[in-house]
Amino acid sequence: MKTRAALLILFMPTAAFAHGGDHHLLSPWSLESWVALTLFASAALYLTGVARLWRKLRIGRGVRVWQLCCFLAGWLLLAVALVSPVHALGERLFTAHMLEHETLMAVAAPLLVIARPVGGMLWAVPQGGRRLVGSIARDPMISRIWSILTDPFAATLVHGAAIWIWHLPILFNAALASPVVHGLQHVCFFGTAILFWWALLRGRTRGYGAAAFYLFVTALHSGFLGILLSLTKTPLYPGQNAAAPEWGLTPLEDQQLAGLIMWVPAGIVYAAAALVMTGLWISRSSAMSASGGVHASLPR
Q1: How far apart are CA 22 and CA 17, in angstroms?
Q2: For residues 240 and 251, what is the distance between their CA atoms, to the nearest angstrom?
Q3: Please, what is the angle between helix 251-263 and helix 94-102, to 10°?
Q4: Are 17 and 179 in contact (CB under 8 A)?
Q5: What confidence score (pLDDT) does residue 6 get?
Q6: Closest to 266 (Cα-Cα) out of 140, 137, 130, 99
């Protein structure tokens, strides 16, 4: 009975941790029902689908082993950002909050895009369900909307706008004050990051140069926002730095460290991805040129 009670307390949703509540109640784990349901449902669908697919074919067919590893790594990083004590601490320490956001956008999102999990998930549903999803995806209007959203320029613009708009003090402070607004902030960050990485990592030779360009642009503008946060002389988000003294930081130092995280580590991720894309662009363009093909096009 004691063990059951302890587990219940440990995994109980901790609304008290969100946005100004009593941060010392219950557990540091944050199991908001909609987050937990989404995480567990996605993992269950994907793993069930992959198991069925591999049972029908063989291990590594349809879904590569490395794709499964990318999905698991991306899923675990989502759980760390949204469920673990990092999330609870992020309500009171800007540095932790920035780590949470950059984990969502710069690490978990590209891993999940590389994994391409939708195909595996579809194998978890009946054949009729797969046909229905396929027919919806082939609908001309849906295809057109998806094509627009995953255009590299549009995806970069939308993702960049989400980053900048949500860091406006009025919206960021609103997210700190309301769990609903904070949830919307995370959906915008992660959803636009998925579109951004999907648009740039589709693996088409002619798109490698454009992908490198847009990754460098993202590294520059997000790094500039990080610099602004680091150099600002007053805290921009009251209430975000409540735990700063516990970590030996002033509220301003907490904000400056958060800005440094956005500026340097996140910028390194984008710049490294850009360099990889540049290398692929050069090597594939050279190979196509040697075989008489068409050169990869420059970014638009």
Answers
A1: 6
A2: 8
A3: 20
A4: no
A5: 37
A6: 99
**Dihedral angle over CA of 243, 226, 273, 184, nearest 10:** 60
Average pLDDT over all residues of the chain: 85
Give the start-to-end residue ranges of the domains of the chain: 8-290
| Single-letter code of the amino acid located at 196 | F
What per-residue confidence (pLDDT) applies to 281? 86
Q: Which residues of 139-160 are buried (b: 16+ CB within 10 A; e: fewer)?
A: eeeeeeeeeeebbbeebbebbb
Residues in contact with 70: Cβ distance below 8 Å, sequence separation at least 6, in sequence order: 111, 112, 114, 115
pLDDT higher for 20 or 244? 244
Tens of pLDDT, residue by residue over 128-165, are 888 888 888 888 898 899 888 889 999 999 999 999 99
Mean pLDDT of 19-25: 41
**167 vs 240: CA distance, rounded Å:** 12
Structure-token pair, residue 49: 């689908």
Closest CA to 176 of 262, 91, 255: 91
The two three-digit tokens of residue 124, written as one number: 């978890």
Find out whether 173 and 237 touch, Cβ atoms under 8 Å: yes
Rg (CA), the chain: 21
Report the amino acid identity of residue 243: A
> Helix, strand or coil for residue 35?
helix
Question: What's the token pair of residue 122?
Answer: 């579809």
- Which pair of tokens denotes residue 277? 């894309």
Separation of alpha carbons 196 and 215, rounded Å: 9
